[in-house]
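ok so i was messing around last nite and threw this chain in just to see what happens. nothing serious, just curious
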Amino acid sequence: MLEALSNSILLIIVYMTLIYILALTVKDNSIVDIGWGLGFILVTLYNFLQNTEHSLRQNIVLLLILIWGLRLIVHIGLRNIGKKEDFRYRNFRQKWGKHWVILSYTNVFLLQGFFMFLIAIPVILVNIRDNHGFTAFDIIGLLIWATGFFFEAVGDYQLQQFKKNPENKGRIMQSGLWRLTRHPNYFGESMIWWGIFLITLSSDYGRWAFISPIIITLLLVFVSGIPLLEKKYRDNPEFQSYAARTSIFFPWWPKK
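result:
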C-alpha cells in the first residue's frame, strides 16, 4: 500500500510541476483548473495498469473517473481558453507581488497536488487489491455518483447557456437546478466523491478512503469553492435576494 501511495505522490508532483511550467509560459495560472481532471485520470490509470487482472469494481471506478475527468477537462477548457486569467489567480498574483513565481508553485500547484492526492485515495486503494464481489454499497455508491454527475454536468450546462445570452450579462442564474441550490455543480462534485468512496468501500483497503469525500466537501463548502463565489457577489442586490430564498448547498425547494 505504501508503495502505491508514494508512487502516486511522486506522479502528482511531477505532473503539477509540468503544469506549473506551462502556466509560467502562458502567464496564466488558471490552467491548473483544466489540469485538475486530467491529474485524476493519470493517477487512476497509473494505479489501474499496475494490475494484470482487474475486478469489476476496479473497471467501474476507472470508467467513472474517465467520464468525470474528461467532461471536466472539456467544460473548463472551453470556459477558460482564450479568456483572461481567473479572478482568483489574478488576486493571488497581485497579493504575492514579487514573490508570485515561487508562491504560485507552492500555494497553487503543489497545494492543489496535495489535495488531489487526498481526494484520489479511493482510486489508489481500490487498485491495490480487490478480491470482493459487488455489495449494496456499490449500488448505493453508483446511484450517488450518478446523482452527483447529473447535478454537476447539468448545472454547468445550464449556467453556460445562461451566460451565452447577452441579456443576462451581470445577472444571477436562478432557474433550473440553480433554483434548488446556489451551487449545484459543487453539490454534484461532492456527491461524486461520496459515491466513489462507497463503491471502493468493499475493496480490501477501501475503509481508509473516507478522507476523500470529507476533504472535497470541506474544501467546497468552507474554503475554495462556495466562500469565494459568495464573497464575489455578496454586494449584488439580486444575489442577496436569491440567497435569501435558495439553499446554499443541498438542493431544496426555495423559500417563498
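not much to say yet. The radius of gyration is 19 Å.
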